[in-house]
Amino acid sequence: MALAGCAGSGADVSRDTFAPVYQGIETRLLDGDLVNFRVGMTGARNQADVDQYARCAAAQYTLIRGYGFTRHVRTTAAQQGGVWTADAVFVISPALPAGSRTIDAEVTVANCGVSRIPTV
Q1: Average pLDDT of every residue of the chain
Q2: CA angle, 44 then 37 then 69, to 5°
Q3: Which H helix or E strand runs over 14?
Q4: DSSP 3-state percent helix, strand, coil across the chain (nearest 5)
């Protein structure tokens, strides 16, 4: 009878809840169409979450600049004290750039909105 009271406590469900807190975006134009984005967040499940936050920032910035595409160059991510940070570099472009890591900015920003990931 005592075990019946433990069943369905919901403890496992709360551990799987994704509740990110996005801590802002810092944008720096490095050279012409090369842009650096620094983002931070808590509540990330893993590096992929902070990488996606940086992609959302880059996609929105690309649209703001009147371009349609961006290409990911590199991302460096770290976690310290529960805070994930990413330092990412993208090339923005009016036309589809060469390479396999290209991003359609309009589609990405729409997906970020659906996922409730903030942009620039």
Answers
A1: 89
A2: 105
A3: helix 11-15
A4: 30, 40, 30
- Taking the alpha carbons of 55, 96, 114, 66 in that order, is the dihedral positive or negative? positive
Radius of gyration for the chain, computed over Cα atoms and rounded to the nearest angstrom: 18
Q: Supply the pLDDT for residue 16.
A: 65
- pLDDT exceeds cutoff 90 at 11: no
Instruction: Please report the pLDDT score of residue 40 as a whole number.
Output: 98
Q: Three-state SS for 111?
A: helix
Cα 16 to Cα 1: distance, rounded to the nearest angstrom = 28
User: Over 80: is that where the pLDDT of 1 sits?
Assistant: no
Q: DSSP E strands: which ranges in the chain? A: 21-31, 34-42, 69-80, 83-93, 102-104
Q: What is the pTM of this model?
A: 0.84
Hey, what long-range contacts does 15-19 have (CB within 8 A, 24 or more apart)? 18/43, 18/45, 18/49, 19/43
